[in-house]
């Protein structure tokens, strides 16, 4: 369900997010997150630190672990940890988790009225209302299908572009560029 209208200086949209909208948006945000992109740096650093610890635990008298056993243990850990990360973030598992979250929340399933204005972005539904002032937005992003307005590195308000005409999409981009000077990044 989507309705779009311009009210004075505002662009107002009525939308009910679908499971696909929700999953797609959360996947985009997760992939833009600093910690998600740098998991493998953490794995490498962990392996190196583990190697140093085991090296100092081994002693020259043969009473402790020998270096070969320590290296085998470290290599085993370095192979297992990436497998755990890959399985945990395997797209079908992540998508299923996001979809279950959507289905469990009546609030996420409600129709919303969203408006863009000089003051910021407002969202209202039967059960909630909220406003994001432009000064709270730290950056924007755009995918082929959505606009994202980040309020922290891992949290963003997003809305499908399909609910706007091309003219309205350009108005939103221009408004964000004016209000966010330098923090608004769009595809075009």
Q: What's the Cα radius of gyration?
A: 23 Å
How would a textbook summarize the main sheet? Answer: 5 strands, antiparallel
Gross morphology = elongated
> Architecture of the largest domain in CATH?
Roll
Number of helices in the DSSP assignment: 7
Walk me through this protein's architecture.
This protein is α+β, with helices and mostly antiparallel strands. The protein folds into two domains: 1-16 and 111-188, PH-domain like (Roll); 19-109, no CATH class. 49% of the residues lie in helices and 23% in strands. The protein contains seven helices and eight strands; from the N terminus they run E-E-H-H-H-H-H-H-E-E-E-E-E-E-H. It has a five-stranded antiparallel beta sheet, with no helix packed on it. Strands 6-7-8 form a three-stranded antiparallel beta sheet, covered by helices on one side.
Name the features:
2 domains; 7 helices; five-stranded antiparallel β-sheet; alpha+beta; elongated; 188 residues
A few lines on this structure:
The protein is an alpha+beta fold. The chain has helices spanning 19-32, 34-37, 39-57, 67-88, 91-104, 106-109, 166-180; strands spanning 2-7, 10-15, 112-116, 120-124, 129-133, 139-142, 146-152, 155-160.
């Amino acid at each position: 369900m989507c309705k779009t209208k311009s009210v004075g200086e505002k662009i107002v949209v009525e939308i009910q997010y679908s499971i696909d909208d929700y999953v797609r948006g959360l996947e985009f945000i997760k992939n833009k997150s600093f910690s998600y992109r740098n998991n493998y740096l953490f794995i490498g650093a962990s392996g190196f630190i583990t190697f140093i610890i085991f090296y100092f635990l081994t002693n020259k008298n043969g009473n402790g672990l020998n270096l070969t056993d320590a290296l085998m243990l470290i290599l085993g850990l370095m192979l297992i940890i990436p497998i755990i990360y890959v399985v945990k973030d395997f797209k079908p598992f992540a998508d299923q988790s996001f979809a279950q979250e959507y289905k469990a929340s009546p609030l996420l399933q409600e129709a919303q009225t969203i408006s863009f204005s000089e003051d910021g972005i407002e969202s209202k539904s039967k059960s909630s209302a909220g406003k994001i002032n432009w000064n709270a937005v730290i950056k924007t992003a755009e995918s082929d299908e959505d606009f994202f307005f980040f309020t922290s590195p891992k949290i963003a308000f997003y809305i499908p572009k399909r609910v706007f005409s091309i003219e309205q999409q350009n108005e939103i981009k221009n408004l964000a560029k004016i209000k966010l000077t330098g923090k608004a990044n769009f595809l075009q």
